[in-house]
Amino acid sequence: MSSGQSELSTSSVIGIHHVGMSVSDLKASVEFYSEALGVDLHSTPETMQIEDGSLGFSTPSSSAVLAFPNGYLKLSEYDRSDLPPSAVLPVKGPGITHVCYQSPTSQDIYQRLMDGGATSVSRGEQPVHLLGQGVYYAYARDHDGIMYETEHLDHTPFEGPIWFSHAALVSPDLDRLVEFYSLLFDAKPNRRTDRASGPRFDEVAGYDNVMIRAAWFDIGNMILEMWQFVNPVTPEPQRTAAIEDLGYNKVAFEVSDLQKEYERLTGLGVAFLSSPAMSVDGWEVCLRDPDGNLISLIQPKTQDDFSVSHLKQKTW
């Protein structure tokens, strides 16, 4: 049971299984992230053997999984020869704008990623000491223009050099998104704020006069973070993002009983893109949240070690 759920919760969500990311060059992306962050491949890049068409989305030509102490990042390369170039997703969204990597300040993963070819989004040459609590924040983009966040911590609550901290959704309607995920998790957010602003926020986000509303769900091993920019305003999505578009293309949640979750949510009026089917990750079913972000529920195969239940959990 996640820290974000009550003892009476009917949800069997136990954590964020993985965040999916569509990249232009799988080998280059694996090298960029694994070398700078010091994480290993859970699986080697290879042609996918199982078609995922029954789940309602395209099959990548090759895919690889990076394993962090507490979660997974799944990188996929698609045949994009017939697709227009993907636009860079703005900091203000809407969509899955970034994931966050935390580390002790001494590790300086921000600089290691910059040395690997990243470009800064945040203002200045170093991460921003945002709230005066020994945490230093910065946004940057990889060679595909995909944004990530680094957080350097003077005092880390976790063991090891790095932690896969959170996935971030930016929405034009925070209340609508919170209502949906509260239904999904059968739990309210652990934290909310209707006003976050100030010069330091401007430095991190790269905008003037930033004003943000936010909510956070603690989900076992990671955090699902949600923002709504009040200034500059987060726009409504203009289209449903394709899974082949460069950027974060899915957030997958692990459940202990997929059929139970499918029936529970269907009974509550949630529409799915497919029925539960076997994918490369186990039994899986896909749906979209109110902003059109692709999410899925996964129950790993029996005795399969590709499960967050074997990983470190967030206990603070």
Describe this structure in words.
The protein has 316 residues and is α+β, with helices and mostly antiparallel strands. It has one domain (13-258, 269-310): 2,3-Dihydroxybiphenyl 1,2-Dioxygenase, domain 1. Helix content is 15%, strand content 37%. It contains five helices and 17 strands. The strands form two sheets. Strands 5, 6, 7, 8, 9, 10, 11, 12 and 13 form a nine-stranded mixed sheet that branches. Strands 2-3-4-1-14-17-16-15 form an eight-stranded mixed sheet. Helix 1 (26-37) runs antiparallel to helix 2. The radius of gyration is 18 Å and the shape is globular. Mean pLDDT is 92; it is low at 1-7 and 46-51.
Contiguous helical run count: 5
Tell me the major beta sheet: 9 strands, mixed
Mean pLDDT: 92
What gross morphology would you assign? globular
- According to DSSP, the number of beta strands is 17
Taken together, the total number of domains comes to 1
Topology diagram in text:
Elements: E1 13-23, H1 26-37, E2 40-46, E3 62-67, E4 72-77, E5 95-104, H2 109-115, E6 119-120, E7 128-129, E8 135-141, E9 147-153, E10 163-170, H3 174-185, E11 191-197, H4 199-205, E12 211-219, E13 222-231, E14 247-255, H5 258-267, E15 277-279, E16 282-288, E17 294-299
Parallel strand pairs: 1-4, 5-9, 10-13, 14-17
Antiparallel strand pairs: 1-14, 2-3, 3-4, 5-10, 6-8, 7-8, 8-9, 11-12, 12-13, 15-16, 16-17
Helix pairs in contact: 1-2
